[in-house]
Amino acid sequence: MSAPREDHESAAAAPASLSLAGRTVLMSGGSRGIGLAIALRAARDGANVAIMAKTGEPHPKLEGTVHTAAEQIEAAGGRALAIVGDVRKDDDVRAAVDATIGTFGGIDVVVNNASAIDLSTTPDVDMKKYDLMADINVRGTFMLSKFSLDALRQAENPHILTLSPPLNLEPRWAGLHLAYTMAKYGMSLTTLGLAEELKDDGVAVNSLWPATLIDTAAIRAMPGGSTLVRAARSPRIVADAAHAVLVRGSRSCSGNFFTDEQVLREEGVTDLTGYSLGAPEGDLIPDIFL
């Protein structure tokens, strides 16, 4: 099977029986990039998608708001709920959970997408950035998952999916950017712990990470970012992999640290060239932590 070459197609498109139609997804972040791609993939099935993000008004440097994301979700065939909120704030997260349940009747899927990044070394990292990464990445992931548990336990096929890497304890990753590594691994530890804690409840808890660099606003904003994205893949590859995970049975798919390539291989997708943004497969930049 070949990967898609158009945005409206899906490499990991599942049979009709393996669909997110009618299911409710609550996502942190998602105004743009990978999160929005995942939301749009779910919307094409006819899912309900609640997006909680801080960007309620246009940002001078970043494209998209929670409201423009909601418009795209509905245009793609889903039902959308735009929630302006900060994943670091307890009241905002609880309100997002309550609003999602109140609007759609429950929660089937939680996607922990919101994340902050700073690849500075320890001497150079600003402590406000350290706190931001710890609060959004670790605390935000833990809290959105925690506050959604009662609703997830009532769902037919409940999933928590966190965009975080495998727990690779090779010292180089801690040595390169310790603050960021701790923040991302905190997200992954949440996957590890919740998968074990919730296994008898049938709530699937998994992490998903790109095998290569992905074209996102965060990458483009980095020094040399416009050059880097030429050796990256489209966010659609992560979206198609996320969809493939979220339609699997929750009791038989939990505690995994997937890469997008791994998931798509399991779905029978062998040609990923359609996701590349120009560079040959052999010239793509591998993602960190792998």
Textual characterization of the structure:
- The protein is α/β, with parallel strands linked by helices and 290 residues long.
- The chain is built from ten helices and seven strands.
- The protein has helices at residues 33-45, 66-75, 90-104, 127-153, 171-176, 178-197, 217-221, 225-228, 236-246, 260-266, and strands spanning 24-28, 48-53, 79-84, 109-112, 159-162, 204-209, 257-259.
- The protein has a seven-stranded parallel sheet, sandwiched between helices.
- Helix 1 links the parallel strand 1 (24-28) and strand 2.
- Helix 3 (90-104) runs parallel beside helix 4 (127-153).
- The two termini are 26 Å apart.
- Mean pLDDT is 91; it is low at 1-17.
Q: Helical residue percent?
A: 40-55%
**Derived structural class:** alpha/beta
Strand content: 5-15%
**Gyration radius over CA:** 18 Å
Helix tally equals: 10
Average of pLDDT: 91
Record field, number of beta strands:
7
Order of strands in the sheet with most strands? 3-2-1-4-5-6-7
Stretches where pLDDT falls below 50 for ≥5 residues? 1-17
Form type = globular
Question: How far from one another are the termini?
Answer: 26 Å
The biggest sheet, with number of strands, parallel, antiparallel or mixed sense and barrel status, is:
7 strands, parallel
Helices and strands, in order, run as: EHEHEHEHEHHEHHHEH
Question: Could you give a quick summary of the protein structure above?
Answer:
The chain is of the alpha/beta class and 290 residues long.
Write the layout of secondary structure elements.
Layout: E1 24-28, H1 33-45, E2 48-53, H2 66-75, E3 79-84, H3 90-104, E4 109-112, H4 127-153, E5 159-162, H5 171-176, H6 178-197, E6 204-209, H7 217-221, H8 225-228, H9 236-246, E7 257-259, H10 260-266
Parallel strand pairs: 1-2, 1-4, 2-3, 4-5, 5-6, 6-7
Helix pairs in contact: 1-2, 1-9, 3-4, 4-6, 9-10
